[in-house]
Amino acid sequence: MTESEVRTSADEESDDLGAPTLTAALEALLLIADEPMTSVTLAQAVRRPVDQVEDCLTALAAEYAEQGRGFDLRVVAGGWRYYTRVDCAPLIERWVVDGQQARLTQASLETLAVIAYRQPVSRGRVSAVRGVNVDGVIRTLLSRGLIEEAGTDKESGSILYRTTPVFLERLGLASLDELPPLAQHLPELSELDDVLDTVGVGD
User: Fold this and answer.
1) Closest CA to 76 of 119, 14, 30, 20
2) Strands ordered across the beta sheet of 121-122
3) How far apart are CA 187 and CA 49, in angstroms?
4) How confident is the model at residue 76 (pLDDT cuts 50, 70, 90)?
5) Where in the chain is the domain with CATH 1.10.10.10?
6) Do 63 and 56 touch, CB atoms closer than 8 A?
7) What number does CATH give the domain 3-87?
8) How far, in Å, CA of 121 to CA of 129, rounded?
9) Is the dihedral of CA 124, 125, 130, 135 positive or negative?
10) Which of 38, 46, 53, 42 has the alpha carbon at shortest distance from 20?
11) What is the CB-side half-sphere exposure of residue 3 using CA atoms within 13 A?
12) 81: which strand partners?
């Protein structure tokens, strides 16, 4: 069976996918994945047989490679995930280095402030305080060395985050005790905890 036939067959019967086609469904799931996703996990999500999903993934990977796209679909550590092409490494390295010198966005500054004053804290709690998803911002702050993992929450198992010595260095502080007080700008801690306890606080 050719790649086009595999994809045509896989894209039929999309009524229960929640997406236009199986191809689109798999691409959407892989785009939001933080870690490689196994064929079994993907098959469960799209409600299709594992072999059909694997055929579609293989066809997609071949198509990306043939078209010379800026990314590859690879099997790593037993799961599928998107990666930038090796040929694009010089561009990515230049962008990352230049990005280290760029100013933080408002979203990054707000997220960093929440972590600094509430640490150690999970992504879920940071999201609850800011009212938006902070996954991308967390990755940015980690890549810049401003925050780091600080173990896991005993109750939820969520990863906790805290600021790093680099954070203190950039702000010219000797310790966190020198952070300016924000009491007048924040609700009472007890009130904030009550709010956080009513929302999801997972990782």
Assistant:
1) 30
2) 121-122, 159-163, 147-152
3) 50
4) confident
5) 3-87, 103-197
6) no
7) 1.10.10.10
8) 11
9) negative
10) 46
11) 11
12) 74
Model pTM score: 0.48
Please compute the mean of the pLDDT values over residues 51-75 and round it to a whole number: 95
CB atoms within 10 A of CB 121: 23
Half-sphere exposure of residue 88, counting CA atoms within 13 Å on the CB side? 11
Percent of the chain with pLDDT over 70: 78
Confidence of residue 32 (pLDDT cuts 50, 70, 90): confident
At 189, is the pLDDT very low, low, confident or very high (cuts 50, 70, 90)? very low
For the segment(s) 103-197, the CATH number from 3.40.50.720, 1.10.3660.10, 1.10.10.10, 1.10.760.10 is 1.10.10.10
